[in-house]
Amino acid sequence: MKCMTCVGLVAALSGVTSASFYDNPPVEQPPQGGSPLEELQAKWSSDWAFTGISTFAHLPHQKCLTTPSFPFDIAILGAPFDTAVSYRPGARFGPRAIRAASARQAPYRSFNHRAGLNPYTSWASVVDCGDIPVTPFDNALALYQMESAYTELLARPPPSAATTTKVALSPWQHPRIISLGGDHSIALAALRALHRIHKSPIAVLHFDAHLDTWHPGAYPSVWAKTPGSQSDFTHGTMFWLASQEGLIKHNSSVHAGLRTRLGGESFGDYDVDTDQGFYRIEADDIDDLRPDGIAKLIMQRIGTEIPVYLSVDIDVIDPGLAPGTGTPEPGGWTTRELIRILRGIEGLNVVGADVVEVAPSYDGRGEETALAAAQVVYEIVTSVVKRGVKERGGDVKYTPGREWLGGGAEKESAGGLLAKTVEEVKQKVLGEGEAVKDEL
Predict the structure, then answer these.
(1) Which of 16, 101, 195, 428 is the most buried (most CB within 10 A)?
(2) Could you write out the three-class secondary structure of the chain?
(3) What is the pTM for the complete model shown?
(4) What residue stretch is flagged as signal peptide (predicted)?
(5) Does the domain at residues 70-218+230-260+283-391 carry the CATH identifier 3.90.226.10?
């Protein structure tokens, strides 16, 4: 039996308004010349996270290598190469996975509250430049292709260079390329191109579980005894090769997040690494130093002026949180710890970066590794854009949200302020608790 009261209520409501859920104006055929562009933009230019072609953060896409007339300040560039790995292949699909995982980022909703800006809608032109079409059959040719592609794109003037106040001194005479790997060996091609363009060695900030400065002879083989053979080029030797070529600035470069095993029965691998001028920060160091301490060590070592190549192997994160990688090592940092460190080094002069070794075939159902990589790219782009704002004399918005710090108090006093705030809250709760007891 129907509820008569309910029927009456529906009838009463229907008399109140003539509108319904389904009422929309009739669809009209557009004029022969098409609808006005402004109207089309208003209707169809925005995408949901799950719609649209998969570009990084729904950024505009250009195949930049074939469109020299299209200028950009920051390029997101895929390098789908993975035939220099020593363990599990699959990182050639990393760029695709990272782009898919970045779908919840979008220019209209990417304001970074910690930095006080939206990196995709600030002064910089940020574009997804597609992928380098890298051969999977010949590593020597692949390396040459990647070096050629990086050199081609870095040589182009960014659109912001013309609006920079100190053009002669600006590091923005060349665009920035953020690479989506691919295995870690792609860094050699990027460093070669950066050295050629900047005409000087580049400091390397290297987040990784592994050294990647191994002498090629560290991989035992009776089959490859000729120096300079293709087998010298791996994702564990590329920084050794770069150092031998004079591409890396010694005594200004840093490894962070190390927890690798060494070869043989001694610290020989560390000796080789030290000879290349790297400073080592172990994964365990975070227990004593915390993320802020790690960031401070890095800044003290590198400073704010030296051109830096920021290279993030996703295996710096513990495989329990980022399983989709080629050479997983237990005992790594959390995603949050890595992000906190990246935020603490935003003052670096980053002239190029990569996020590598994402192998989606080993990832979980929730895309944990790819999601972490997409967030890392977002943080890197944010920091690069924020530094650019300051270089151009702009202001960065005050960042609210950490009310326990007090009204703009210096961070050095944050510990004391936090202790005071916690004590006040504790007293309030205890006081309310006593009042409740009294009432009972």
Answers:
(1) 101
(2) CCCHHHHHHHHHHHHHCCCCCCCCCCCCCCCCCCCCHHHHHHHHCCCCCCCCCCCHHHCCECCHHHCCCCCCCEEEEEECCCCCCCCCCCHHHHHHHHHHHCCCCCHHHCCECCCCECCCCCCCCEEEEEECCCCCCCHHHHHHHHHHHHHHHHCCCCHHHHHCCCCCCCHHHCCEEEEEECCCCHHHHHHHHHHHHHCCCEEEEEECCCCCCCCHHHCCCCCCCCCCCHHHCCCCCHHHHHHHCCCECCCCEEEEEECCCCCCCCCHHHHHHHHCCEEEEECCHHHHHHHHHHHHHHHHHHCCCCEEEEEEEHHHECCCCCCCECCCCCCCECHHHHHHHHHHCCCCEEEEEEEECECHHHCCCCCHHHHHHHHHHHHHHHHHHHHHHHHCCCCCCCCCCCHHHCCCCCHHHHHHHHHHHHHHHHHHHHHHHHHHHHHC
(3) 0.85
(4) 1-19
(5) no
